[in-house]
Design brief:
The complex is a heterodimer of chains A (about 325) and B (about 400). Chain A is of the alpha/beta class and about 325 residues long. Chain A is built from eleven helices and 14 strands. Chain A starts with a strand and ends with a helix. Chain B is globular, with a radius of gyration of 22 Å. Chain B folds into two domains: about 325 residues, Rossmann fold (3-Layer(aba) Sandwich); about 25 residues, no CATH class. Helix content of chain B is about 35%, strand content about 10%. Chain B has eleven helices and seven strands. The longest helix of chain B has 26 residues. The chains are: A alpha/beta (about 325), B alpha/beta (about 400). The interface between A and B is large, with 45 and 58 residues.
Chain lengths: ~325, ~400
C-alpha cells in the first residue's frame, strides 16, 4: 500500500492496465507528451510508447467517434475529455452510437470504451469548468456511469470500467484530485494520512454497481457521490446524528441492495449532489427508493443539490451544497 | 524517445521539446512577393496568397509591396499604443492573479497585433466574435479599462455579475460578443450573426477568430460550409499560434497550412503574418470590402506564435523549449511596429519610453480604482442573487423557490 492522491491513483490504474492489456490505448487532449492538464497520464507515454498514449486533436466529437471505431474493431480505448463541460460535442457519439451499438447490431458489435472526465465544482471554474453532468448520461440506456470519490475507489473503479465490455462514462471529482473537500474552501487538506488514500500499487477492482458504506449509523441514510461524499461526511459530523453515508460510486447500475438495507435500518434518507436539482440523479433515487421502501420510510426523502442555474464563478460557495445545508436536511428527517 | 518496434500508429510530434533548441523554418516570403488582389477575385486567384504569406513589414522594418495600407503615422501610433496598453495590462493582471485577486488569467503575449489591427480595419458597426485571446479589440472599441478589470477580479462592478471566469468578457456596446470557454463554438455562430445583418440589409460585417487547435472541431467546418453556401458577410480567422495548451498544431491538421483549407470550401483564403500590424490591417480591410460588397466570406490564417503560457494554470516549459518564442521568424509585433515608426522618423526610443510610462500609470490607476469595488481574494462580490437572475427572462416558480432557499443560507 502506498499513499496516493487521486491523480496518482488514476495514473497507477492506467499504468497497470497498459501493462496488462496490449489492446488498451489512451488518447485525448494534452494527455500524451504533457501527461494531461491534471497530470493523470503523466509519464505514461514515455513508459508505454506514443502509439499507446497520445495527444488527440482538440475535437471531443472526433475523440469519441475514433474511440468508437477502435472499440468495435477490437481495441479497448480509454479516452479523456478534459473537462466534463466539454463532453457535449461528443454527446451524439456517446448517446446515439456507443450506447446503442450492441443493441442495434443484434449483439454483433460492442463498444468497450471508457470515457474519463474531470467534473464538478469548487475550483473557481465558472460555468464551463464546474458542471457535473452525470444525469445527462444516466438517462441514456446502454451506458454505465461511475463517479469516484477517493484515491482507492478511483483506481478500483477505473480498472473495472476499463475491463467492462460496455461503454462507461467515468466522472472524476476534480476538486478531490489532490485532497478530500469538506466544504470549507479555506481549509483544504491533502490526501496524506487519509485511510482511503492507501492504495495498492498492483491490480485490483471494485465491482461496478457496488456502493461503499463510508460511515455507519442507524438514524438516517445519506446518499452522495463525488465531492459531495466528503461534504456530506462533514455535515454528518456537524449534525451529531448517526448516519449511514452511502457513497454510490456507480450511478448506473446503482446498488439497490445497500440502499434498501440501510433504509430498512434508518427509515430516513437524504440525497446529496452538486448537479442541479431538476432531473438530477437524485430525482431518480427518490423515485426508486419510494417504489422499493415506501412502507419503511418514516418521513419524506430530502434532496440537497446545486440550484437549477448555471454554475457561478465568484459566488460558487453559495451554489455548492454546504455542510450546513446538508446537516439541516439530516436534522429535518429527525423531526417526526 | 526512441521509436519502439511496436509503434504501429503514426503519431505526430512537435518540432521541438524541452531541451531542444527551437527550430523554425526560415521565412522566404517578402512583402513584394504577392500582389494585391481584386476584391472580386476568384477562389483560385487566392491560392498563391493562401500558400504564401502576406507581409508588409520586411526584415528591415520597412513597409513594402502592394498590400501596404499606407496608414497615417497617427493611426500607426494609435495601433502601437493599444498593443502596448494590452501588454502592460496583461502583465498587471497576471501579477494580480499570482496574489489571488483573480482566479485565472490569459495573456495575449506575442499576439497583441491581431485583434487590434483587425478591429481598427473594421467599421464600428461590425460585430466581433472573439475567443479569449482577442481582448485587445475592446481597447479599439473604447472600453473602459476599469470595467475590464472589475470583470476579471469578479467584484461588485463586474458587468457579467461574477458568472464567468476572467477574460471571458462581454461588451455589447462595442459589439464584442460574450466569450465562451468551449472553444470553437463562436466560429460557426458568427455565420448566423453575419446572415442576420445581411437579412436586415445592414452594412455590418462579422469577424470571428478560432485557434489552430479548435480548428479541429466540427464548429470550424460547419462555419466554412455555411459561410460558403449562404455567402455570409463574415471574416473567418484561424489564429495559428502553433499551440493548443501542450498540443502542437501538428495535431490540429495533417497539413501545416491552415489557410488553404478554405479553398475547397470555395472561400477566398489568405495567409497573413500575424505579427505584422500593417499586413493584418490590410488583409482585414480587403476582406471587409469583399463582405460589404456582398462578395461573401474570407478565410484568413493568421500565422503567429503563442509567446506566453496558455493561461495562468499552464507551464509551457514542460512541453516546449523555454525560449522558443525568441526564435519565431515573425518577431514581436510591438517591436516591429515600433521599429517601423522609428524608421519613418515618426517615433523614438524616448517617445516609446514616455508612452510606456503613461500606460503604466493608466493601468495602475485603473487597477486602483477597480479594487475599490472588491476583488476575488477579499470581496465584496457580486450579490449571489446573480446566480438566479437572467437564467431565464423571468424566473419560473421552481427557481424562485430555490432562490428563496439560497437566501436563507448565504449569510450563515
Amino acid at each position: 500500500m502506498v499513499n496516493m492522491n487521486m491523480v496518482q491513483a488514476i495514473n497507477n490504474a492506467l499504468d497497470n492496465m497498459l501493462e496488462k492489456d496490449k489492446e488498451l490505448i489512451i488518447f485525448g487532449e494534452d494527455v500524451g507528451y504533457f501527461g494531461g492538464v491534471f497530470r493523470t497520464s503523466d509519464g505514461l507515454q514515455e513508459k508505454h510508447g506514443k502509439h499507446r498514449v497520445f495527444d488527440s486533436p482538440l475535437s471531443e466529437g472526433g475523440i469519441a467517434a475514433t474511440a468508437f471505431g477502435m472499440a468495435i474493431n477490437g481495441l479497448r480505448p480509454v479516452v479523456e475529455i478534459q473537462f466534463a463541460d466539454y463532453i457535449f460535442p461528443a454527446y451524439d457519439q456517446i448517446v446515439n452510437e456507443m450506447a446503442k451499438v450492441r443493441h442495434r447490431s443484434g449483439g454483433e458489435f460492442w463498444c468497450p470504451v471508457t470515457i474519463r472526465t474531470p467534473a464538478g465544482g469548487g475550483i473557481r471554474g465558472g460555468h464551463h469548468h464546474s458542471q457535473s453532468p452525470e444525469a445527462q448520461f444516466t438517462h441514456t440506456p446502454g451506458l454505465k456511469v461511475v463517479y469516484c470519490s477517493t484515491p482507492f475507489n478511483s483506481k478500483g473503479l477505473l480498472i473495472s470500467a476499463i475491463e467492462d465490455n460496455d461503454p462507461v462514462v467515468f466522472f472524476e471529482p476534480k476538486r478531490c484530485y489532490r485532497g478530500p473537500f469538506y466544504g470549507d474552501p479555506h481549509n483544504v487538506p491533502t490526501w496524506k494520512d487519509h485511510p482511503e488514500a492507501e492504495v495498492p500499487e498492483s491490480y485490483y477492482k471494485i465491482p461496478l454497481g457496488e456502493a461503499r458504506l463510508a460511515m455507519e449509523g442507524d438514524e438516517c441514510t445519506v446518499i452522495a457521490w463525488g465531492t459531495m461524499v466528503h461534504v456530506a461526511e462533514q455535515a454528518i459530523r456537524n449534525s451529531g446524528i448517526r448516519c449511514d453515508l452511502i457513497d454510490l460510486q456507480t450511478l448506473v447500475p446503482w446498488d439497490k441492495d445497500v440502499v434498501v438495507k440501510s433504509i430498512k435500518k434508518t427509515g430516513r434518507c437524504v440525497i446529496v449532489h452538486e448537479a442541479p436539482k431538476t432531473s438530477g440523479f437524485g430525482a431518480e433515487m427518490v423515485a426508486s427508493i419510494q417504489e422499493r421502501c415506501f412502507y419503511l420510510l418514516e418521513c419524506r426523502i430530502e434532496r440537497v443539490t446545486g440550484w437549477d442555474t448555471p454554475f457561478p464563478h465568484t459566488t460558487e460557495w453559495d451554489y455548492m451544497p454546504s455542510p450546513s445545508r446538508i446537516a439541516e436536511a439530516i436534522r429535518k428527517t429527525q423531526e417526526e | 524517445m526512441a521509436k519502439k518496434k511496436t509503434e504501429t500508429l503514426h503519431i505526430p510530434d512537435a518540432p521541438h521539446r524541452p531541451g531542444d533548441s527551437a527550430k523554425f523554418e526560415k521565412w522566404t516570403w517578402a512583402p513584394e512577393d504577392l500582389n494585391l488582389l481584386k476584391i472580386d477575385c476568384s477562389v483560385d486567384d487566392t491560392r498563391e496568397h493562401a500558400e504564401g504569406l502576406v507581409r508588409v513589414l520586411n526584415d528591415e522594418h520597412e513597409a513594402k509591396g502592394e498590400w501596404n495600407p499606407n496608414l497615417k503615422p497617427e493611426e500607426l501610433i494609435m495601433g502601437l499604443e493599444h498593443m502596448l496598453r494590452l501588454r502592460i495590462f496583461d502583465d498587471r493582471m497576471m501579477k494580480m492573479q499570482r496574489t489571488g485577486k483573480l482566479s485565472f488569467y490569459m495573456r495575449s503575449y506575442g499576439e497583441e497585433a491581431i485583434a487590434i489591427a483587425q478591429t481598427m480595419a473594421l467599421e464600428t458597426q461590425d460585430w466581433l466574435f472573439p475567443t479569449y485571446r482577442q481582448p485587445g479589440a475592446q481597447f479599439v472599441r473604447g472600453r473602459d479599462m476599469v470595467s475590464m478589470i472589475c470583470h476579471c477580479i469578479g467584484n461588485e462592478e463586474d458587468n457579467v455579475k461574477g458568472r464567468q471566469m476572467p477574460v471571458h468578457y462581454t461588451y455589447r456596446e462595442g459589439r464584442y460578443i460574450s466569450v465562451s470557454s468551449p472553444v470553437g463554438t463562436q466560429f460557426s455562430q458568427a455565420i448566423g450573426v453575419a446572415l442576420a445583418s445581411k437579412y436586415k440589409e445592414l452594412d455590418e460585417v462579422t469577424i470571428t477568430w478560432i485557434g489552430d487547435g479548435a480548428s479541429a472541431t466540427g464548429d470550424y467546418h460547419y462555419a466554412l460550409n455555411f459561410a460558403s453556401i449562404f455567402k455570409a458577410p463574415v471574416i473567418l480567422n484561424v489564429v495559428n499560434n502553433q499551440w493548443a495548451i501542450s498540443t502542437h498544431s501538428n495535431f490540429a491538421s495533417g497539413i501545416q497550412n491552415f489557410a488553404v483549407r478554405g479553398l475547397p470550401y470555395g472561400i477566398p483564403s489568405i495567409r497573413v503574418d500575424g505579427n505584422d500590424f500593417l499586413a493584418l490591417y490590410s488583409v482585414t480591410k480587403w476582406a471587409r470590402d469583399r463582405a460589404a460588397k456582398k462578395l461573401g466570406p474570407t478565410h484568413i490564417e493568421v500565422l503567429t506564435y503563442r509567446a506566453g503560457a496558455h493561461s495562468s494554470s499552464d507551464d509551457p516549459s514542460r512541453y516546449r523549449p523555454k525560449d522558443a518564442s525568441d526564435f519565431w521568424p515573425g518577431g514581436d509585433p510591438i517591436e516591429r511596429l515600433k521599429e517601423h515608426l522609428i524608421n519613418i522618423g515618426k517615433w523614438s526610443e524616448e517617445k516609446h519610453l514616455g508612452l510606456e510610462e503613461k500606460l503604466d500609470a493608466e493601468v495602475m490607476s485603473a487597477y486602483k480604482e477597480a479594487v475599490k469595488y472588491g476583488d476575488l481574494a477579499n470581496g465584496p462580490y457580486p450579490s449571489s442573487d446573480a446566480i438566479f437572475t437572467e437564467v431565464y427572462e423571468t424566473p419560473p416558480w421552481h427557481l424562485q423557490e430555490q432562490w428563496d432557499e439560497m437566501k436563507l443560507w448565504r449569510d450563515e
